[in-house]
């Protein structure tokens, strides 16, 4: 099992605790250093690998399951290249499952407030969101893709799309997290889950 864009690897540690044998991959040495600290703190020994998901250092057809939980996909300019690498390393019949922020959040303010439940930019504006530090150095880049863009990227990479899941807000849930609140969650999904097979 391969997790792509693992960050500090909470998903891989959860999977390890459930009996799986994940390999946690991220391009960021800093995130993997934090993952190693958390491995030691939790006693869950998840193997960590620093690599570019667009050039996976794994053999063809060597992975049964690949996943990405809000990981690398939104942060790479060429998602299709990453998905093609996933297709390459998956065994025939292997599965890929990824969760990303739902594309519907892109045209709205990044706020949980009910008065911000409004469209302020085009859903079709694919310019990346970029943050810079005080010196002008880029510190964060996220790429927007429409639902159709995701479908075409998956299929274009040679995978077979088997499901798109848009989880509904849990009734009675009252917490606000980031831009997500009951007011927003009751109107639209916060997550898009992509399920595909090789």
Automatic annotation (TrEMBL):
Signal sequence segment: none
Gene3D superfamilies in alphabetical order: Vaccinia Virus protein VP39
Example of a GO MF term: S-adenosylmethionine-dependent methyltransferase activity
Keyword set includes Glycoprotein: no
Keyword flag Zinc: no
GO BP annotations, alphabetical order: methylation
One family name in Pfam for this protein: Methyltransf_11
Top-tier EC class: transferase
Key words, A-Z: Methyltransferase, Transferase
Name of protein: Methyltransferase
Domain Methyltransferase type: 2-97
EC number(s) from the headed UniProt entry: 2.1.1.-
Xref: InterPro entries: Methyltransf_11, Methyltransf_Superfamily, SAM-dependent_MTases_sf
